[in-house]
Design brief:
The protein is of the alpha+beta class. The chain has 13 helices and ten strands. The protein has helices at 4-7, 47-62, 82-90, 96-101, 136-151, 185-189, 193-202, 234-262, 264-280, 286-301, 311-319, 322-329, 335-357, and strands at residues 25-34, 72-76, 106-110, 115-119, 125-132, 158-159, 163-164, 176-183, 205-208, 221-226. The chain has an eight-stranded antiparallel β-sheet, covered by helices on one side. The chain has a two-stranded antiparallel ribbon with strand order 6-7. Helix 3 (82-90) packs across helix 12 (322-329) and helix 10 packs antiparallel against helix 11 (311-319). The two termini are 37 Å apart. The model has no long low-confidence stretch (mean pLDDT 90).
């Protein structure tokens, strides 16, 4: 299996499956931070030590497989072109930090791309499990199984009092980050997010953009995750997040219903203006495209637009990012060239939807 297999398709196989509350929760993720006992942590390791970690993990994990996990394949950062790494970031298979900072890192990917194990990011291992919709408990179940499977082959850095030891103190303990990617356009339109987001932070959770820490919340997509990893069992951390997400789902549904009942004409105008721009524009910047796609997805979810799959937001949000545009073009594109190709790609995709509908 080559790297091209993972970067030629915008939608990962796991994203094509249905999940609970998928009209609002696009995906759920469980991520575990782990380090190897006998090696220096990545921030202090030399080139030789970093390569030794990769070899150790590769030898330990690729010699055997599991029916639950399936086959894993490894890709080394120093073997990849810059844009190939960028595409993997856009698909959330690796972090921006691994792509930009780790010359001696690697990633293990499962065939359906639901499992990604980053090597030599901030920690030796960042074990990530992705699921469609609101599936945090299922994600924790698979991540725990994967964690146990790895621990049978590798000795983790662990302290009886502090738990799993990590490069950043905020990850010490369980090393668990549970997160959901939510589409919250109605709460944004009704300006309720300005009140809700600070309250979420006070509950020990954090709200970030689509690529995690330091990223912008494009297209009304927000990543909600836990902040605390020490002092609570994994199940309690996930359950706390689930409770808040359930409230957000209820509030978003209520806001959508209010818009349809009280401001239907204005909502229709907003949705169809965005649909018209996406269907006809010849040049469109990334930020505007994501906002227009968010409007169209909202129109699909509340029944104003029929015959178009809701997955169009997931797909085009990735397809129209700079890495994918350049991957398809087979060359480096200037910003104005990307804007032109982005507009053309969206037009063709919407045209294909209409032809399929007819």
């Amino acid at each position: 299996m080559s790297l091209q297999r993972f970067i030629k398709e915008a939608i990962s196989p796991w994203m094509k499956k249905d999940g609970a509350d998928s009209d609002i929760v696009l995906s759920s993720r469980i991520r575990l931070a782990r380090n190897l006992e006998e090696y220096k942590f990545p921030l202090l390791a030399s080139m030789e030590e970093s390569h030794a970690v990769v070899r150790h993990i590769e030898d330990a994990l690729l010699k055997t497989s599991s029916d639950t996990i399936g086959k894993l394949e490894i890709f080394h950062m120093d073997d990849m072109k810059a844009n190939e790494k960028r595409v993997l970031v856009e698909k959330h298979l690796i972090s921006p930090n691994l792509a930009e900072q780790s010359k001696y890192g690697a990633v293990l990917l499962s065939e359906d791309e639901s499992i990604s194990i980053m090597i030599n990011e901030e920690d030796h291992l960042r074990i990530q499990c992705l699921f469609p919709g609101f599936e945090l408990n299922r994600g924790l179940e698979i991540a725990s199984y994967l964690d146990d499977w790895i621990e049978q082959k590798i000795t983790y850095a662990f302290d009886e009092k502090r738990g799993f030891l990590t490069s950043c103190p905020t990850n010490v303990g369980t090393g668990l980050r549970a997160s959901v990617m939510m589409h919250l356009p109605a709460l944004a339109i009704t300006q309720q997010l300005n009140r809700i987001l600070p309250a979420i932070n006070q509950l020990g959770l954090v709200v970030r953009g689509i690529y995690g820490e330091g990223s912008e919340a494009l297209g009304n997509l927000f990543q909600v995750s836990n902040q605390l990893t020490l002092g609570k069992p994994e199940k309690d951390i996930v359950e706390d997040l689930r409770g808040v997400v359930l409230q957000l789902i209820q509030q978003e549904r209520a806001a959508r219903e209010m818009l349809v009942q009280n401001s239907r004409l204005q909502l229709e105008d907003r949705v169809y203006r965005s649909f018209g721009i996406l269907s006809n524009s010849r040049v469109i910047e990334s930020k505007e495209a994501t906002q227009r796609l968010s409007d169209v997805r909202l129109g699909i979810d509340v029944g104003l637009i029929e015959g178009i799959s809701g997955n169009i937001l997931n797909e085009l949000m990735i397809l129209t990012q700079p890495g994918f545009l350049q991957q398809f073009a087979g060359e480096v594109l200037a910003p104005d060239q990307r804007d032109e190709r982005r507009a053309a790609l969206i037009r063709e995709r919407l045209k294909l939807e209409n032809e399929t509908k007819e």
